[in-house]
């Protein structure tokens, strides 16, 4: 029997795994995800063919490693799943690692690359930690399966120097790798390829403003198929606010927030050295701080339950609108489309309509019926623009980071 590819997407609060066939393009065998690890009880979502279900997880899953092992076992023990029944059925494991530092492409894990990635952990303690914990586990427990890491930052290596450089002492900046990296690149790569194909344009001639807005949110300007700017920076904290992240603030705010801000946070461990300020701005801000919920579907409603919910919605619209305006100008107004993606971008018709209404001066217009309906299950890209006008298309793309990794893995093998 042919072997399969396992793609792992570990976030700060969720672990998603998908098994694919090793073919080009890969075919999904099974999809399993656990979310809410940081706000128990965690929930499991499992999908194999038409079989779909959701359940609360009773076991205590306190680490990304436990969560990954639980998901793997859940798939291996499914009696209806003959294609993946044990580790022996695996050929590759693809891991999404958010921060790849200066890595320009995916790398295979060995002692040397793992060491280099370890050195990046301090630059992205909240994001790389979970993924690397799982990479380490696979190396020890599944030593025969090749592990490949794919980096969110790699897509943004084309960002010009003047955009990626922070105006600080350049010796210090270079010595410490302090520059804009940008993230969600695995997702942007999937979206770019899917949208170019949808528009029937070569990738290298495609110009887009793409929003990946989920619990972490960012936006990217793509010119001639290359990232020329994005809202996240040295870390995923910069730019747009998110479920628990503040997004960009005046950096001096940190020094006025509390006297404790510069000290090590309680979540700091021997592997993860994070300060109280990083902890507050990454984990205790955003929608959670403003409204008490991290679930944007409770905020993006016609009649918000409180003024705070309305404010959170308005803040998000304001920040995104600012970036769309800026990126429209950076692309010289020559864009093929504005794309909504990520959990919020794909599901919130209200956010899409509000934003497009506020960007009318750029020639954007939305078809209310198409927008309210959103994309169908099998529809990767949907055009929700009004008429067949000359302005940029307004599109929704159902992004898929696990597929993107498996796709590149299968391509590099064949
Ligand atoms: N109908 C909806 N309207 C607005 N937001 C939604 C809707 N459905 C899901 N979301 C939001 O999408 C976010 C999750 O996005 P997703 O990209 O799937 O997650 P992650 O960033 O964890 O990968 C959550 O904040 C969730 O509340
Ligand atoms: C980079 C980033 O913010 O990732 P996520 O949205 O998965 O948290
Ligand atoms: Mg995500």
Automatic annotation (TrEMBL):
Pathway connected to this protein: Metabolic intermediate biosynthesis; acetyl-CoA biosynthesis; acetyl-CoA from acetate: step 1/2
Catalytic residues, chain numbering: 152
Binding of substrate, residues: 96
Gene3D superfamilies: 3.30.420.40
InterPro entries cross-referenced by the UniProt entry: Ac/propionate_kinase, Aliphatic_acid_kin_short-chain, Aliphatic_acid_kinase_CS, ATPase_NBD
Entry keywords, A to Z: ATP-binding, Kinase, Magnesium, Metal-binding, Nucleotide-binding, Transferase
Single Gene Ontology BP annotation: acetate metabolic process
Enzyme Commission (EC) number: 2.7.2.1
One Pfam family it belongs to: Acetate_kinase
Site, as annotated: Transition state stabilizer: 184, 245
Catalytic activity: acetate + ATP = acetyl phosphate + ADP
GO molecular function, one term: acetate kinase activity
Listed cofactors: Mg(2+)
Binding residue positions for ATP: 16, 212-216
Family membership: Belongs to the acetokinase family.
HAMAP family found in the cross-reference section: Acetate_kinase (MF_00020)
Protein name, per record: Probable acetate kinase
UniProt lineage: Eukaryota, Fungi, Dikarya, Ascomycota, Pezizomycotina
